[in-house]
């Protein structure tokens, strides 16, 4: 399937989570076997081309796409988790949200020092979560130079924010607006 065909599998939900937002829902893509396989193949090919020795994914939908791409490439998957989900000592990173803060955690033993890790997530909007994940992975010893996303919302500036953090950013598709 082409990126344009995959884009047709994304459901747009108006006014979610608040009025004026056009929510881009990847669950309809995930629920389409051929679409999920095609998106995974595109991400895996881009990660291979970037020299990935491991794939990191951000909880929760980044786990779906990232783990599938890692399995396709036969490389390790590094989960970037929400707080309190890992049963070992972790590295943690707090980051700002629109209204407050949140935290991401990673098992430092999941990354080999100097390992080339590609970050994969379902969507890049403002880039706050992805930026924090990149910083956290780098603190764990990873070399993170590439971020791959299923969807980019360019108007929200997240991809540009990541480029400012020395990350090459690529997405399968983009949607204009919020």
Total number of domains? 1
By CATH reckoning, the class would read: Alpha Beta
Structural class: alpha/beta
Number of distinct helices: 6
Strand proportion, as a percent range, falls in: 25-35%
Poorly predicted regions are none
Average pLDDT reading: 96
Most strands sheet:
5 strands, parallel
Number of strands: 9
CATH topology grouping: Rossmann fold
Termini distance?
25 Å
Order of helices and strands: HEEHHEHEEEEHEHE
Helicity range of the residues?
25-40%
**Radius of gyration computed on alpha carbons:** 15 Å
Shape: globular
Pfam family, one: Pribosyltran
Protein name: Adenine phosphoribosyltransferase
Family: Belongs to the purine/pyrimidine phosphoribosyltransferase family.
Domain Phosphoribosyltransferase: 32-142
